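Lecture notes, part 5. Sequence design as translation. It can be helpful to think of inverse folding as translation between two languages: the language of shapes and the language of residues. The source text, in structure tokens, appears below.
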């Protein structure tokens, strides 16, 4: 079990607030094992922020705290200068769309799985969201198309197809804040290319937090946050971190070596 206090439900009003995000001296622990230490971070409304670091660095935990899957042990997280703990679950849910590498689909039609992003959406709006999420190609191969049952946990679809259905749900939701938690981490190159095209659609004019698996995909982020052993090691643009941050230089070298290996491996197989 998590060593964390229960989440509170409160009543609130978020009308006319901005979507600037502040992490103020945030710490968090699993079973008394501290995994985030005194994180201070500002994320401007409408910006793209990437969280990077080796496995266990705390980047996914930081994102889950923003979505309020868990509560902070100390410090605070604010959206529009309002503490998450003072928001109702409904209000917070309306502000954030969360897409992770493991998305659960319900055993209902793909249309209804997408519609969970916004229950009052019309069929046409669901179709449009599916198209923007690059679902048309695989839906056309299914006998019942978007009316196909997903199966328990979405077992009728491949991992990449489940991801695109989940992204269609996020597109339909149209929340002002998007959290992408290593959404393409385990995809093959073809599915990753399609997913990236879909992600480009969903993040337009949003405040976006990306937990990056491939560093080359986030070099144009407004800011890149380097986490190491639960500490925020550095924050800056790609070039600033290349110039000043040893941890980022190491991660960038590893990313380049991995990319070069894939190219060499693929050429060797031809």
């Amino acid at each position: 079990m998590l060593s964390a206090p229960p989440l509170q439900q409160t009543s609130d009003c978020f009308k006319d607030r901005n979507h600037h995000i502040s992490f103020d001296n945030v710490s968090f622990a699993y079973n008394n094992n501290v995994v985030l230490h005194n994180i201070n971070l500002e994320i401007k409304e409408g910006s793209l922020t990437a969280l990077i670091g080796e496995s266990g660095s705390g980047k996914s935990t930081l994102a889950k705290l923003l979505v309020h899957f868990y509560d902070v042990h100390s410090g605070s997280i604010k959206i529009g200068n309002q503490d998450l703990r003072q928001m109702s679950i409904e209000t917070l849910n309306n502000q954030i769309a969360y897409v992770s590498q493991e998305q659960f689909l319900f055993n209902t039609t793909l249309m209804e799985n997408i519609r969970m992003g916004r229950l009052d959406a019309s069929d046409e709006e669901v179709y449009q969201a599916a198209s923007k999420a690059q679902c048309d190609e695989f839906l056309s191969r299914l006998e019942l198309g978007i009316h196909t049952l997903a199966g328990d946990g979405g077992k009728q679809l491949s991992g990449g197809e489940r991801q695109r259905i989940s992204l269609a749900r996020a597109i339909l939701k149209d929340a002002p804040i998007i959290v992408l938690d290593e959404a393409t981490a385990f995809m093959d190159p073809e599915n990753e290319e399609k997913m990236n095209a879909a992600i480009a659609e969903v993040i337009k004019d949003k405040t976006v937090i990306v937990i990056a698996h491939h560093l080359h995909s986030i070099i144009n982020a407004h800011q890149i946050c380097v986490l190491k052993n639960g500490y925020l090691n550095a924050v800056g643009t790609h070039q600033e971190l290349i110039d000043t941050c040893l941890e980022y230089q190491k991660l960038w070298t590893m990313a380049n070596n991995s990319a070069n290996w894939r190219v060499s491996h693929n050429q060797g197989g031809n």
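The translated text above is only one of many valid answers, since several sequences can fold into similar shapes. Residues 219 and 238 are 5 Å apart (CA to CA).
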